[in-house]
Amino acid sequence: MKGKHTRWLAILLALTLLLPSGLLTPIAKAETQANGNIVYHETFESGLGVAVPAGTVNLTAACVVFEGNEDGYAVHIKERSASWHGMDIPFSSVGMENGKTYTITVKGYVASGVDVPDGAIALVQNVDSYNGLYLNSSLEAGKTFTLSGTHTVDTSKDRALRIQTNDAGKDVPFYIGDILITAEIEEPQEIITYHETFDNGLGLITSAGNSKLTPVSDVKFEGNDDGYAVHVTERTLDYDGIDISFSSVGMENGKTYNITVVGYVAEDVDVNEGAAALVQNVDSYSGLYLNTSLEAGKAFTLKGTHIVDTSKDRALRIQTNDAGKDVPFYIGDILITTPKSSGEEEPGEERPPAKEFVPITFENQELGGFEGRHGDEILTITNEANRTEGGQYSLKVENRQNTWHGPSLRVEQYVDKGHEYKISAWVKLISPQSAQLQLSTQVGNGDGASYNNLQGKTISVDDGWVKLEGTYRYSSVGNEFLSIYVESSNNSTASFYIDDITFEPTGTGVVDIERDLTPLKEAYEDYFLIGNAVSLGEFEGTRLELLKMHHNLISAENAMKPSYAYDEQGNFDFTAEDQLVQRALDEGFKIHGHVLVWHQQSREELHTDASGNPLSREEALENLETHVKTVVEHFGDSVISWDVVNEAMIDNPPTPSNWEASLRQSGWLKAIGTDYIEYAYRFAKEVIDENNWDIKLYYNDYNDDNQRKAEAIYNMVKEINEKYAAENNGELLIDGIGMQGHYNLNTNPENVKLSLERFISLGVEVGITELDITAGADNVLTEQQAQQQAFLYAQLFKLYKENAEHISRVTLWGLNDATSWRAAQSPLLFDRDLKAKPAYYAVIDPEKFIEEYDGGGEVIEANRGNALYGTPTVDAEIDPIWNDAPTLPINRYQMAWQGANGFAKALWDEENLYVLFQVSDSALDDSSQNPWEQDSVEIFVDENNAKTTFYQDDDGQYRVNFNNITSFNPEGIEVGFESATKVSGSGYTVEVKIPFKTITPEHNTQIGFDLQINDGNNGARQSIATWNDLTGRGFESTSVFGVLTLVQELDDTVDNENDNENINDNGENSNHNHLISVEGSTNAMSLAHNYKILANLNSSKNSELMTVSNACGGNGGNPPRPPGPGSDSNNNNDTESGNNGTIVPEVTTANNQVTGKVTAEQITQALANAGTGQNGKKQIVIELAKRANAQSYEVQLPAKSLQELKQAELAIKTEFATIIIPSDELQGIPANAEQISIRVSPAATDHVDASAREKIGSRPAVTVNILTDNLTAASISEGAALSISIPYTISTTEQDDAESLVVWHIDENGQPTTIINGRYDEKTGTVTFQAPQSGSFAVAFVTNSFEDTAALPWAKKAIDAMAARDVIKGVSSSSYAPQQSINRADFITLLVRALELNAEAGSEAAFNDVQPSAYYYNELAIARSLGIASGYSDNSFRPGEQISRQDMMVLTVRALAAAGVKLDTDGSLAAFTDSDSLNNYAQDQAAALVKAGIINGKNGKIAPQDSLTRAEAAVILYRIWKL
User: What top-level class of enzyme does the UniProt entry assign (predicted)?
Assistant: First the structure.
């Protein structure tokens, strides 16, 4: 059953013989159904699914292709001896519910060799009552059948559906390939924008004027049965009341809303005569005036519509008129909805379709929309640097003052909501010598925004231009604020250039969540809450569905951090926070508050003056009290817990027993002292106790698995709690400890366990507050890494379950990899497309995953690098000798926080090792007494590369801070050591010499080696970046070092494995990566699965796509076709010449012309072995393998053998194209002809005019020639066609507009003519078409510039596709006039063109009102000759009359029949309310088009008498073209 996950054991067995284990990533199949909600869809790709035998039958998984079952997966129902023997689908197994009506469709097949008695039919029946459902279809050998109908379930009588036969067919075995059960989609007529019932307080409403708003819970009145309401009192003016801000509730400019307000006036209120309640729009007070009289003791309702105009108004206001200005009233319910949008043939979209993004190269010397994120950045178009081929300019970015500053570009107009985009920018560093630059995207604006890193790289000035790129799916459009930007996460002053910015759709379309997964919150409902970190963007669409499915608690990722509580003037402002909290409560989530006091993202003015000095203790303490109490009181019991203090402890404190000495030197500590922590908790506790709220107070921190840090936290909480308990009868002040849990693959779960047990021993609860586990890099996660990540998740959740009585919640820090703050390292349970990773399954059942875990594949090898021979001067100046030394990037982080980084280079000679560091860090600190907590670098050396767990005599650790202060481990190794440092404005340089102690180095000597950058901040180490080690054990164990090879010179075999991407002259990645797609199966029960494997193959420097096929039983990658009469269904799969209908002829090459000569014997043998296809013909495949530098391929065939071929076709396969030629279509072969040649070569397009040549671009063009004895062209019989497929890799720009790819026939004069049937086939990666003649053909990309189709998304795609093929034309170059009616002549013309119909038209084809000079004369004559158009009784056609929709239906069905497309006429029109208005002559045709999906109706009507519009005509033509 689709959606079920494949069995890993079967997968590994299937691939063991092909590739190493641990490299496989499943590519899931997708399914959609437009006509209803899918209740059950069985394709049998994973076996029998829920199907069970009925009677004594044999159900066997099989692989057979038939119409409606193109993937080949099926179940064979055999050994039948009674009519009811078949297959049952239990209602309970597929979720069919009592009383509901379902549509059932079953696709089946009877093999050609089966004896089928007359009258045998297949049935679907309801068992056990066998009444009410009788779907039936005749059975015929070698034919498919379809069983389709509806059924209303009655579980009091029935338990299942049964697929069987009647008595005449009781012995007939048959296949079932597809079962689809759907329920009707119940679509709301209105979409709720905002609904306030006041059961959680005031929600998003605010006071207008001087009114007082008081929530109540016991005032019931008509329309307010739950009693919750808001009481509006202390009114003295008419406008005193309630405001509902447009922005708070998501009311958008230009949209129409339905508004309903239910209120009440108490019985004892004195109401003046004429008093009325109102809803008005403020501030303009025009256009909206909903009113109703007020009466004591009576409820009232205000109801109406309003179109929002944000240029004039900001809110809705509920108030009274002047007569009612003193009247207090209750409001119990506010409902704001938008009408459901409707289209014509298809529903429209709310947002206009995305515009095409034009790459920004700055060659026009304009900013292209870029602006500074902060506003003070200096952005300059310059010719100092350029990346664009043939260009001169780029954008220079200077005057950055913070890490987040940089160039930003708004992109919402280029985004279709829910779609994924590939985003890239080239960057070139100016200063410092090294810095991290990253490309990011912002969704939303203000406090509710989310910030998503696409790719970051640490680069140097010497790297030149470096490409940053990544993909992002915009599930939210952030209230129409989306941007991309370049920043530096570790350097606030770095300057750089950017160029060649692209923003392209990936073409993957909108993704859905996996709805058949076990929800995480259900798996752990007996253990602890499951939380997630969110921004406002998570409360939309599929992201909200995923969030709600798996989680029951949220933490605000950013919106509730300290600085977000204030506006720019420093006043409290909770607007954005309130919006997020209300949304979370509305969706049923519990809320954890994060955070009250933190050293980051806080208002510095609360503890530090304008000069950077601490405020007085008294002033800072007063500010702390005001801040904590105001925030806690504002949110009240909307939250269940708070992180009161966050990350107050330094990492790896030297004396953890002294917790106060282990505190971070934050602004609060400097101003108040170490007791600021205790005060923060006391202030929060006072508010909670005063209001009798049940809210837990937490301390939260990261790197909690570090035992020194855990000990310091333990001692702090213990001391504060014991002090408070002594004063308050044993009550705790700090209720819990939050273990953030930002881990990586090197995290030791035993250390996590030690910390957890330590904290539990304090008697507090524990929250796992920000869990993620990094693995992989640059958004690439190998299968091996995914399994290792999952294993660590399993170990952690097993630990959490074992200690669940002490754990309140486990919160994952992000919904999926794409939106994680560590996105490039794929840290979460769901991937970029919201699909479950192995980590999800590990979390769902950790014990099972641990039991089955095989070790995760190969052990990850240590980093390897090279040191070049040479002797520099140690002076912190970069001598030229360093230029050729390979770069060693220092960008692996041991901590969650990622701060300073950089790179190094290494040289060596016979006596010393030399290392040069360039560190990017604009804020240097050496205030700590501990040298490792200062801004510094470290070098680790293991001369014999022994990889021991302890230091030997040849090992050492060397540390140098930015002021050239040194320290060593062990002491005594400093003899002969030299160092020099140089500080710049944005970092520092360190150069060192380390004498070799125990070895005499030579070429290819390998030593153990590592590099480290310590980032100090306020007396604490906030970040550690390394070249190799992620464990933090390098100071005591050489086993965690990388390997450095000493080489005399560099060649291709000794490049550093971790260098930045190698970019060739065309900007392409030249790394030796090969993408191999493997399709395979082991048996019929574990059929074809797709995998992508990334292998590092040193044999080639080109990236290639290789395909290994073993699908569905093996047959060249295709499931076997049903055997035809007399054929051998057990043919083997040999691919040698002549076997299975395939010929691989001997070839010769001369002047780059590849020629394959086929003998008569080979044709005879191939014909004998070829199976008969569904078209009744045998296919002979002739393959010419790709040859280097080939300019043409030619197949030479014996003419006599071709003359004797009957009911066969030739398929000529070459690298340029595949051509299929039916044998009976080769005519005119002279009796004395000896040879027929088929030649394929690239076609020249230089004689095509410039405009057309631009549309062809670099896309393929081929010439196909069919020759007799290499002289005369052999003719194609009239009405026949060549089938041609041209391989083509679609670009990202074309993916969302693939139907604008067309095929042109190019004549000898260079004139293109569109081949209308040409199209891109995504499955085969080819452009396919049928041509009536040989010749030259080119692939082109043709778009239009119609400006009036964007507002009709239901028709735009069809208009674009048909216009690209010249089927339809605009009324001008910029206008299509989609709403204009179309006349009879034009529609007939378009029908004939779209279906490429031809016929001989004599004089009898003419109508008396159609002149031969009319532009539509030929098409109308063809239509009459083919019986499509018959005209009126007076032999007129009335070409200028508008055509009605019902006449369009009749003509369309006739045209399809003329084209050989027969439609079923048993479709139902019952769904259309006006079906009775169809004339009798159009009833069958309308039913046929509805069943075929060509007609969908208009707003529930068939509208037969309406005139057909040009937009509707385009949609109809497009749909029949797609058949």
Answer: hydrolase
What phi and psi values does residue 138 have, to the nearest 5 degrees?
A: -65, 145
Q: What pLDDT band is residue 344 in, cutting at 50, 70 and 90?
A: very low
In the chain, CATH 2.60.120.260 covers: 31-183, 190-339, 371-505
Sign of CA dihedral 998, 1003, 1008, 1012: positive
Class of domain 371-505: mainly beta
Average pLDDT for the chain: 84
Integer Cα distance of 1222 and 1205 in angstroms: 9
Whether omega before 432 lies within 30 degrees of 0, making that bond cis, reads yes
Residue 110 has pLDDT above 90, yes or no: yes
Angle at 845 between CA 842 and CA 846, to 5 degrees: 60
Rounded to the nearest 5 percent, the helix, strand and coil shares of the chain are 20, 35, 45
Q: Whole-angstrom Cα distance, residue 728 to residue 1142?
A: 90
Rounded-to-integer distance, Cα 1476 and Cα 1510, Å: 25
The token pair at 59 is 């159900």
Order of strands, sheet of 241-245, starting from the edge strand that comes earlier in the sequence = 206-208, 241-245, 315-320, 276-282, 289-293
- DSSP helix/strand/coil, 150: strand
Q: CA-CA distance, 402 to 487, in Å (whole number)?
A: 9
In angstroms, the CA 1267 to CA 329 distance is 93
Contact 477, 415 (CB under 8 A): yes
Cis omega before residue 595 (within 30°)? yes
pLDDT at res. 855: 65
CA dihedral 781, 787, 792, 793 (to 10 degrees): 80
Predicted confidence band at 1523 (pLDDT cuts at 50, 70, 90)? confident
What is the chain's Cα-based Rg? Answer: 37
User: Residue 634 corresponds to which tokens in the numbers above?
Assistant: 């504002």
Q: How confident is the model at residue 988 (pLDDT cuts 50, 70, 90)?
A: very high
Where does the pLDDT of residue 1023 fall: very low under 50, low under 70, confident under 90, or very high at 90 and above? confident
pLDDT tens digits, one per residue of 55-88:
888 888 888 888 888 888 899 999 999 998 999 9
Q: Could you tell me whether strands 174-183 and 315-320 are parallel, antiparallel, or unpaired per DSSP bridges? A: unpaired
In terms of CATH, what superfamily is 31-183?
Galactose-binding domain-like (2.60.120.260)
| Measured distance CA(615)–CA(623) in Å, rounded | 10
Q: What is the CATH number of domain 1132-1341?
A: 2.60.220
Q: Structurally, what CATH architecture does the domain formed by 561-573+592-740 represent?
A: Alpha-Beta Barrel (3.20)
Within the chain, which residue ranges are assigned CATH 3.20.20.80? 561-573+592-740
User: If DSSP codes are grouped into helix, strand and coil, which group holds residue 163?
Assistant: strand
Say what percent of the chain tops pLDDT 90.
47
Q: Is the peptide bond before 970 cis (omega within 30 degrees of 0)?
A: yes
The CA distances from residue 464 to 361, 1009, 1052, 1063, 1353, in Å, are 17, 27, 21, 11, 44
pLDDT the model gives residue 6:
33
Task: Report whether pLDDT(440) > 90.
Answer: yes
pTM of the model: 0.46
Q: What are the catalytic residues?
A: 770
Task: Please say whether the structural domain 864-1054 has been given the CATH code 2.60.40.1190.
Answer: yes
Kindly report which listed range (299-313, 1100-1114, 1456-1470) carries the lowest average pLDDT score: 1100-1114
CB atoms within 10 A of CB 214: 14
Q: Which residue has the higher pLDDT, 627 or 1491?
A: 627
List pLDDT tens digits, range 1268-1293. Answer: 876 655 555 555 678 999 999 888 77
- The whole-angstrom separation of Cα 23 and Cα 857 is 9
Q: What is the spatial distance between Cα 851 and Cα 1324, in angstroms, rounded to a whole number?
A: 41
